[in-house]
Design goal:
six-stranded mixed β-sheet, 2 domains, alpha/beta
């Protein structure tokens, strides 16, 4: 069992590092732009109240400075992701070796976790500190000296700095400690003292963080999705279900059933986690969405819940596998194989194409442009201009990239036009015919996997007829 667990951990680490080896995409580049334009660490906190400024990650980017190897920008996420896999194993170990193995397999081969464990944003460290906070409670809640208590506070505060969705875990941990304290001693004073001991410092920090940073945060915007569809999609991606038809709804139903059954079994086992799982998977996300009523809601906002879903599923599958029936064991193995296979179908394109090939595209422009100035326009001035401005640093010395925004095309015609798409199956036209500007022929495609990033299609201007 231990050898199998080590093998799964190594596979997970390789997946994370491989997925992190590609190009940075827009959201990562925006975070990096905050770090590179800040004159001090304090300016990152006070001057960039933006939803892409995941403070812990941006501070890391600021401290490491400009790098030639892009993977170094993702090093914090990589280490936090690998550490999260270790913590999943440590938490599941409480139930037994089988549960540990299953939980590691689910988390270590998860497409959404590998995707964000390899991305220079705040989701990976937020998940790490979420798991660490739960581990401290699980193993040391009855033996909390000042040093351990300070470690718990620090873990919660750093989790909030990593990403504001960490508040979901903070709520779930608070509910867990409250119920556990009241069961041990249903005295109002005792329960109040226990809550103050564990959460007064983090709650005060959270209040300050909200007032100073979150309340005035600028939301960049994006497509607006139906909230129910977003929730179902999060469940589908976590479980490896298809995102089409009724599969996302079916995935959410599986999550709810697993949560209910797991809660009952954990309660019967006498585990204080019977409160934590339904709160972190259902109650806390519902409260946060209801309270904030976000205009923009994406599945990644629920990513903080995903490793806890895998822990609960590992616990349930372990219980099922321990039954005396051979059929039950075979069914558990079949479910795990199906999960790994479905996640592998998504992981393969990620490992192959990453979040886009922007460096290669810029170098292609340089190699196929006469002279030292590359004149480029695109179908989205903000998105593509940000990326082109960043990747222009990889051009040869003396070569300049001039971006021409769409309103200026009629008087200053670009030699190249880049179009983009986030639809993995999108097929571009062979030619663009722009009235009053000219005809452009498709010369090169640079593909991405899915979710983070997009395709780039390069069109070159044809001679005027």
């Amino acid at each position: 069992m231990k050898l199998a667990a080590i093998c799964i951990f190594l596979v997970a680490a390789v997946l994370i590092v491989t997925a992190a080896s590609g190009d940075l995409w827009l959201d990562e580049v925006i975070s990096l732009s905050f770090a590179e334009s800040a004159s001090s660490a304090w300016e990152i906190v006070s001057g960039f109240r933006h939803d892409n400024n995941h403070l812990l990650n941006t501070l890391y980017l600021y401290w490491i400075g400009r790098q030639k190897l892009l993977v170094i920008y993702r090093l914090l996420a990589i280490l936090a992701g690998i550490g999260s896999i270790v913590l999943v194993g440590a938490l599941a170990q409480k139930w037994g070796q089988i549960e540990r193995l299953f939980s590691l397999l689910l988390a270590g081969t998860s497409y959404p976790l590998v995707l964000y464990f390899s991305e220079a944003r705040g989701y990976s460290p937020a998940i790490f500190f979420a798991l660490l906070s739960l581990a401290i409670l699980l193993y040391r809640r009855h033996h909390m000296n000042l040093l351990r208590l300070a470690a718990f506070w620090l873990s919660l505060c750093l989790g909030l700095l990593a990403h504001s969705t960490f508040v979901i875990v903070l709520i779930a941990l608070g509910a867990t400690v409250l119920v556990d304290s009241c069961r041990r001693n249903p005295n109002l004073k005792f329960c109040s003292l226990m809550m103050a001991r564990f959460f007064l410092v983090p709650v005060l920090f959270s209040a300050g963080f909200y007032v100073f940073f979150v309340r005035n945060m600028h939301i960049e915007g994006g497509p607006v999705f139906n909230k129910w569809e977003v929730i179902c999609r999060a469940a589908a991606l976590a479980l490896g279900f298809s995102e089409w038809g009724l599969f996302p709804t079916a995935a959410l139903l599986v999550v709810i059933v697993a949560m209910v059954v797991g809660t009952v079994l954990l309660y019967q086992d006498g585990s204080f986690l019977w409160v934590f799982f339904p709160t972190v998977l259902l109650a806390a996300p519902f409260l946060v969405v209801a309270a904030t009523r976000p205009t923009y809601l994406y599945f990644r906002y629920f990513l903080i819940c995903t490793p806890f879903l895998y822990l609960l599923l590992g616990y349930l599958l372990g219980r099922w596998y321990r039954s005396a029936f051979l059929v039950s064991r075979l069914l558990v193995v079949a479910l795990l194989v199906a999960f790994v296979f479905s996640q592998a179908l998504r992981l393969a394109p990620l490992l192959q194409s990453g979040r886009g090939s922007y460096r290669a595209a810029v170098r292609y422009l340089e190699a196929n442009t006469d002279g030292n100035e590359i004149r480029v326009g695109s179908d989205h001035d903000f998105r593509n201009q940000v990326l082109l401005s960043f990747y222009a640093r990889f051009l040869s010395p003396g070569v300049r990239l001039a971006y021409i925004e769409q309103p200026g095309w009629k008087t200053d015609r670009p030699e190249w036009i880049i179009t983009h798409s986030q639809n993995p199956a999108f097929t571009p036209p062979d030619r663009l015919e722009l009235r009053g500007i000219g005809h452009y022929r498709l010369t090169k495609e640079f593909r991405f996997a899915a979710i983070s990033g997009w395709h780039w299609f390069l069109f070159h201007k044809e001679a005027d007829r």
